[in-house]
């Protein structure tokens, strides 16, 4: 079982609106809701690819029930404490104008220390049943914050590989304490925030010194993937039409984890995960891809060693 940690799940909404006029009434054309949060997106992708997975999260209010229901209907088991405050709702605007793709992201609920302790206890229990751990996204507001490096350390005690997709101080802490996860995936914006580097290759060089498999994504430019042998593959996939790029990085991460479970080599892993990230762009569902689209895109991915 692949265990996906999603400490700050969300209900993600598409909001269709042609214009936003400050100080006036603005009417929404239509809206659509999806289960969200990076870890949830990763788990949905892993399950779509045919691998067994589960989610560990904090589940709050009606939004938490909706997220869990969506995942459980897909055959994904959900673990973790129920909390009083509802999980966050995040909005993505769809329009024919400048608003298209604009996101509004809530901070999420406050989690008390008792629930954090419960989360940690559940993690250690589930760890013994897991083949890989994925830690994604942000930590919710709380007086007690668990550093993601602690999850990596605990997993290493059982020789379980960890995949990490986080940014900011959580990523800096992983670098600082020198605890190496198996894989770190960030995009170039997250890399610049932490490392103050613009070039994906410069970001890759730094990140690869802190893990065995470094994955840097840069939008349409694609994926740069490097292993501990310092081989680098650049993979990209040209799409004629993109419906939405929201969640592409999470879909790519699902591909990376699945590639590891299937023992794919570096180039094949780059091709497979790039196809997963690209497939996310082809449909209206937010942060979701379909295996049939992945299969169609794999032959279209260009991958070269650099």
Can you describe what's shown?
The protein is an alpha/beta fold. The protein is 36% helix and 26% strand. It is globular, with a radius of gyration of 19 Å.
Structural class: alpha/beta
Mean pLDDT: 95
Unreliable parts: none
Please give the share of residues in helix: 25-40%
**Percent range for β-strand residues:** 25-35%
H/E order of the elements?
EEEHEEHEEEEEHEEHEHEHHEEEHHHE
The major β-sheet equals: 10 strands, mixed
The strand count comes to 18
Shape: globular
Separation, N- and C-terminal Cα atoms? 34 Å
Radius of gyration from the CA trace? 19 Å
With strands numbered from the N-terminus, the spatial order across the biggest sheet is: 6-4-1-11-13-14-15-16-17-18
Number of helices: 10
Features:
single chain; 306 residues; 4-stranded mixed β-sheet; 10 helices; 18 strands; 26% strand
Gist of the model:
With 306 residues, the protein is of the alpha/beta class. It has 10 helices and 18 strands.
Topology overview:
Layout: E1 2-6, E2 10-16, E3 30-36, H1 38-48, E4 53-57, E5 59-60, H2 61-73, E6 77-79, E7 82-83, E8 88-94, E9 103-105, E10 110-111, H3 113-127, E11 132-136, E12 141-142, H4 148-157, E13 161-165, H5 168-177, E14 183-187, H6 188-195, H7 200-208, E15 213-217, E16 223-227, E17 232-236, H8 248-261, H9 266-279, H10 291-297, E18 302-305
Parallel strand pairs: 1-4, 1-11, 2-8, 4-6, 5-7, 10-12, 11-13, 13-14, 14-15
Antiparallel strand pairs: 2-3, 8-9, 15-16, 16-17, 17-18
Helix pairs in contact: 1-8, 8-9, 9-10
